[in-house]
Design a protein that fits this description.
Oligomer: single chain
Number of helices: 7
CATH superfamily of one domain: NADH Oxidase
CATH architecture of one domain: 3-Layer(aba) Sandwich
CATH class of one domain: Alpha Beta
Strand content: 5-15%
Radius of gyration: 18 Å
Distance between the termini: 30 Å
Length: about 210
């Protein structure tokens, strides 16, 4: 029997529905105590072999933020060149980052050379360390949303360039660049779906063998 009530279970599903990638932020600051509370969810996350390979870098200085934004702009221009016709026109109208407005920005890396965990579960599938970072990010994202915060995952970046700009070890692999702050508005419909870029699946593609 579950220790969680039916109301909690329904609320959890509702939270997942309202999680959504946020790209439109208010510039209001996020209370440091609240941010720490959200970040502490990383300490509760599962990880392969208990390796806890996540490494977080808070992007605060004007120099670091400008470098990250320039990185995005160049990669976004390259991405646009990969489309043509109506898809290119639509892509050019999409807001794909909140980097100019979000008060909190975090670069989340995976330490691919960590000795913690002694390689358990990662010798045959080393990518499990990165998957572990993704699991931790998901917990952080859901908890932040439960507090009213929005999170946006920026993936249109050159990871090696960002790592160099931040002067980080070569063994740190970028998993996510997260924008965090108070959303301009909340919606349970993905923004890309609203823009007509793609539709969400209505059913799970499940095979039985």
């Amino acid at each position: 029997m579950s220790r969680f009530s039916s109301d909690f279970q329904s609320g959890l599903i509702d939270l997942m529905r309202w999680r959504r990638d946020v790209r439109r932020f208010r510039t209001d600051p996020v209370d440091e105590a609240l941010l720490t509370q959200c970040l502490d969810t990383f300490l509760l996350a599962p990880s392969v072999g208990l390796s806890e390979p996540w490494r977080l870098v808070r992007i605060e200085s004007d120099t670091a933020r400008a470098a990250a934004l320039d990185n995005f702009r160049e990669m976004n221009a390259q991405a646009l060149d990969g489309y043509s016709g109506d898809k290119a026109k639509l892509y050019s109208t999409l807001k794909l980052t909140g980097m100019q407005e979000a008060p909190v920005q975090l670069a989340v890396f995976c330490d691919t050379a960590t000795a913690k965990g002694a390689g358990l579960g990662a010798l045959t599938m080393p990518e499990m360390r990165q998957y572990s970072v993704v699991a931790a990010i998901t917990q952080f994202w859901l908890y932040a949303r439960a507090q009213g915060l929005g999170v946006g995952w920026v993936s249109i970046l050159d990871p090696a360039r960002l790592r160099r700009d931040l002067d980080l070890p070569d063994d740190w692999s970028l998993v996510a660049y997260l924008c965090v702050g108070w959303p301009e508005a909340a919606s349970d419909t993905p923004e890309l779906e609203q823009a007509g870029w793609e539709d969400r699946r209505g059913s799970l593609p499940l095979e039985v063998r």
